[in-house]
Amino acid sequence: MASSASDTHDAILGTLEEARRQFLALVDEVRPELHRYCTRMTGSVADGEDVVQDTLARAYYQLSELKELPPLRPWLFRIAHNRAVDRWRHDAYLKTEPLDAASEIADDEAREPDQALARHQAVHAALSLFLQLAPAQRGCVILKDVLDHSLEEVASELELSVPAVKAALHRGRVLLRELSEVAPPPTPARAFQPALVRYASLFNAHDWDGVRAMLADEVRLDLVSRRKAAGRRDVAPYFGNYAKLPDWRLVPGWLDGREVLAVFSPPGAARPNYFIELSWQDDRVSAIRDFYYVRYIAQEAQIEFD
Q1: Contacts of 72 (CB under 8 A, 6+ apart)
Q2: Which H or E element spans position 21?
Q3: For the whole model, what pTM was predicted?
Q4: Residue 135: is the preceding peptide bond cis (ω within 30°)?
Q5: Which regions in the chain score pLDDT beneath 70?
Q6: 196-255 residue pLDDT tens
Q7: Burial class of residue 277 (count of CB atoms within 10 Å of its CB; 0-12, 13-18, 19+)
Q8: Extended strands (E) in 32-135
């Protein structure tokens, strides 16, 4: 009897894992674009990936309630927009106007900036500047000027009318241009915490016993988009896998004001391939977030090195 129950349990888990793999393959092509959107909606590369993960989890759950698959891109972007706005509300970012501000006003074509100029402005604007746009403005500017979606696609993805998209787009472009013309404040002096530097040094030396000695007993691992583990014993294989990988080096850096470990592979690469984020408790590593399996994240990452 016990064996039968165990077999049923394993079969269910196997079916769910296969369904998960098929779903991730289905959304693989649109995922980097979702991340570009969510990164600017949240003002953070890492937080943007959190919203992508949340979006895909919601979409996967909703699929079981649908009779047929909806048009994939607009459906995923609608979910991503709503999840990003919910996060924005929760984190209590400063609002410039009501959350759903996208009223339908007449557009003066003469006031519209050159499309190429608007696109260049949006693509190169600091991520933090997007947070000062109301969500409807932010979403329209990102989708149109950063991701080059059509007005009709933006309207479908944000569930707005085309005139409302035009209005929000105009207001968002004007505000983003004004914000971009203000000189950013100087970066304050800062130094990496010694524990992070020590962790990177031990990791680069392949001193896995030394690295494990820095872990908290209940350390949590999030190998983003692949697996999670908790506790020293279950996290241990993670370091063994790195021991098998050739030619990499960890370098401490700053991303969105937070300490990270940039991973260069090979060590002399011009840009990091991805990064690892650690959380600490009394100089012990309490959590590891490794973005190895979502390397598109490096495309938006502007990591600063001291």
Answers
A1: 26, 27, 30
A2: helix 2-27
A3: 0.81
A4: no
A5: 1-10, 12-13, 90-117, 120
A6: 999 999 999 999 999 999 999 999 999 998 899 999 999 999 999 999 988 899 999 999
A7: middle
A8: none
